[in-house]
């Protein structure tokens, strides 16, 4: 089974990293791939460039062999469409291996606005992680997919290469990249919300409008 967890990672934080560890254990896979997007089609431009976000993500997972970074969306260039990423991965792993794409309810709420979203279940399973305060419109297409194509267990995901939706509760940390960016811009400390190595690199590169000569 191959598992990918995509995001802007602007910047990566302990909320993302803890979730990645929980997912790896839940799905019992040796490795989980974190896939930073290059240009997100459905949200404002990130606070940091894709190469910087990729560099921070690599620093964050250094020394954790269970988490790997897949930079294919940067290499591909252009807007980062998940359907295209999944198509590339499916071609790599062949037709039979289960492929799972993970996202939080906030991301899944806009699933039916993604380019070519109908092809996604033909390529992969979708694992939706419940995020507090992020409900789905019960009349919307995403909630409908959970009802009509939903499954109840990880074992079911193993039984087919693609096509199922699993809604999963996991322990989550209440951390968002937006709150981290705000703190940095306002001259407040983001320490303990993200790895020290990442925070150090942000200061060194002066990312997120980090005040110069910052000695936080
Ligand atoms: P922003 O605040 O800029 O929107 P974010 O912290 O939500 O960023 P993203 O890179 O947009 O991070 O999120 C990537 C994926 O990680 C999404 O599917 C999102 O639901 C999930 N995610 C973000 N923060 C957390 C968290 N604290 N715990 C679990 N999942 C998270």
UniProtKB/TrEMBL annotation:
A molecular function GO annotation: ATP binding
Domain spans labelled Cytidyltransferase-like: 4-183
Transmembrane spans: none
Annotated coiled-coil segments of the chain: none
InterPro entries in the cross-refs: Cyt_trans-like (IPR004821), NadD/NMNAT (IPR005248), Rossmann-like_a/b/a_fold (IPR014729)
Enzyme Commission no: 2.7.7.18
Keywords recorded for this protein, A-Z: ATP-binding, NAD, Nucleotide-binding, Nucleotidyltransferase, Pyridine nucleotide biosynthesis, Transferase
Keyword Nucleotidyltransferase: yes
Pathway entry: Cofactor biosynthesis; NAD(+) biosynthesis; deamido-NAD(+) from nicotinate D-ribonucleotide: step 1/1
GO BP terms: NAD+ biosynthetic process
Reaction catalysis annotation: nicotinate beta-D-ribonucleotide + ATP + H(+) = deamido-NAD(+) + diphosphate
Main enzyme class: transferase
Keyword Endoplasmic reticulum: no
Task performed by this protein: Catalyzes the reversible adenylation of nicotinate mononucleotide (NaMN) to nicotinic acid adenine dinucleotide (NaAD).
Family: Belongs to the NadD family.
Name this protein carries in UniProt: Probable nicotinate-nucleotide adenylyltransferase
Species in which this protein is naturally found: Marinobacter mobilis
Organism taxonomic ancestry: Bacteria, Pseudomonadati, Pseudomonadota, Gammaproteobacteria, Pseudomonadales
Gene designation per UniProt: nadD
